[in-house]
Amino acid sequence: MEDGCRVLLLRPECTSVHVRGLEVECMSITMTVPRPGSSVEVLEGLEEGPGMVAFTSPRSLPYLVEDARGHGKLDELLERLSRVPLAAVGPQTAQSAKELGLEPALVPPRFDTLSLARAIGDYYREQGLDGLVLHPASAQSLPHLAEVLGSNGIGYRRVVVYEHVERPGSLERVTEALEGKGYQWIVLTSPLIARLFLEKMSKTPGLVSLAVLGPSTLGVVEALAPNARKLMAPRATLGALLGELKKQCTRGDNRDGAS
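-> structure tokens emitted (259 positions)
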């Protein structure tokens, strides 16, 4: 394995990640907790006649389904969602809808919340829609969607479906890993993970660079660690980011690569 290709991936849940030319180890530092009653609140929001329902995570719909099933309202939820245009932030989120028989009307070419918000504004104008955007989402969802929609005169309502919380003892395990394994890249996959890592770690090793998933995560890194060496892929997907890391490792280039 070439020097500079040892990567620590920090994400909510760990699955096997294999990229030829990279040695990737995953550690989970957050866990996801569903919000009881979220499906009932979404159904109440659907009663208001929203112009669109926006999903910014592939987790939202599965949690809504489980909550609706527990309340005996699953068929009602799916039937009501089928009547409203759906927007999905990216292909994984769109797939979570398709698996339930729902077809998103809108998936932006760039898979981040800002791009989704702009695409929704364009869609509203093209289709002559009115009514607010209903957003079933994480408690940690950033305000970009509401801000951009508001600037376009579109109303917004968020329903919290789940939240991310710190996994007990996880940052201590990350500290131990950083001290002994010689990583040169740390991959931060969400704004919350970036904030937890940068605020609660006693120090970021000087030889370690930060690879960040998406512009929202980059914003946290720039605010809390403005002098850190960092990299962001043009597309906000883990595959694209690891592909950029592979290029960096192949070149042996650890310069600031944020874009």
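The chain has ten helices and ten strands.
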